[in-house]
């Protein structure tokens, strides 16, 4: 069946349509797959970065497509299509346009509001900013969680709408045998279409190569190295929370905000530097049955993995060694700006029995509780990558 110029969409409209369609289908498949992976799976992190990159690409293409639609009249509707089908088609197209914007925008807000403040670098080349209002709100973690849900719901609705859209197009082609589908295909043997598509691909390739060269010439995302640090604890003594602090600590960390799985964290605590306002605690803990600071002067934590969590924090897993015992611990770590300084914070709970601490005089938890909360913070500063 032939297609006259007035029956088909223009070459640019066709390119926009299929580019956006293929990207959206790919994003939906990758999105469903990556969320099925464990949070600390490095493949999930890599897919998330590509998901963000192609999501922003869809947003940009959707804006351009909408502008093109306003300035270039689409083909007239086929007279053979019933009025009710035309109205349903208009509704579906409208929903598609809404979702084409809603999905990347909700994702953008989710990333912007994340307490982790992870930079978005499109295709690991082009820095992409956070949306300022959401990056500074006090309840940003709740906002990030809410928009994660909105993003997921919008994706599910889009799958349903896409299936209806594709089904209707196939029905027109195979049952009604009209040109509804074929007029959105490239004109057969069209040199004009091939030239425009080739020019577009060349522009994208050249732009990406140029930005990549620029990024690699000294504008790569900064890594963050550890500075001043502090480690404290809260134990339950006679039913009261009793804090203490280690004054001699050192943290060796390399935090890559663009690629958390490449981050590392090592913390050393000199146990003899312990102090507490509770004099009995301060006097007892250095002794042999507690920290035994004479024989074990240092406690050590070494990370084994760092992953990005859904709530925007970094999930750190590693080995904690106190005295002769090594136990694996896992905890969330957040990054934030405090008075112009980038600061990492986190906390986790340990059971003193696992490290044979205080088991001679305090075997029960009547006087000294078993769980002990360990808190830490350290400053981080930009370091050239």
UniProtKB/TrEMBL annotation:
Pfam families (alphabetical): Ni_hydr_CYTB (PF01292), YceI (PF04264)
SMART domains: YceI (SM00867)
Transmembrane stretches, start-end: 12-30, 50-68, 88-111, 153-175, 196-215
GO annotation, biological process: respiratory electron transport chain
Domain Lipid/polyisoprenoid-binding YceI-like per the UniProt entry, residue ranges: 220-383
GO molecular function: electron transfer activity; heme binding; metal ion binding
Record's bilayer topology term: Multi-pass membrane protein
Main location: membrane
Keywords: Cell membrane, Electron transport, Heme, Iron, Membrane, Metal-binding, Transmembrane, Transmembrane helix, Transport
A single cellular component GO annotation: plasma membrane
Cofactor: heme b
InterPro entries in UniProt: Cyt_b561_bac/Ni-Hgenase, Cytochrome_b561_oxidase, Di-haem_cyt_TM, Lipid/polyisoprenoid-bd_YceI, TTHA0802/YceI-like_sf
Protein location: Cell membrane
Domain of life: Bacteria
Entries under PANTHER family matching the protein: CYTOCHROME B561 (PTHR30529), CYTOCHROME B561 BACTERIAL_NI-HYDROGENASE DOMAIN-CONTAINING PROTEIN (PTHR30529:SF7)
Family: Belongs to the cytochrome b561 family.
Protein name: Lipid/polyisoprenoid-binding YceI-like domain-containing protein
Organism encoding this protein: Granulosicoccus antarcticus IMCC3135
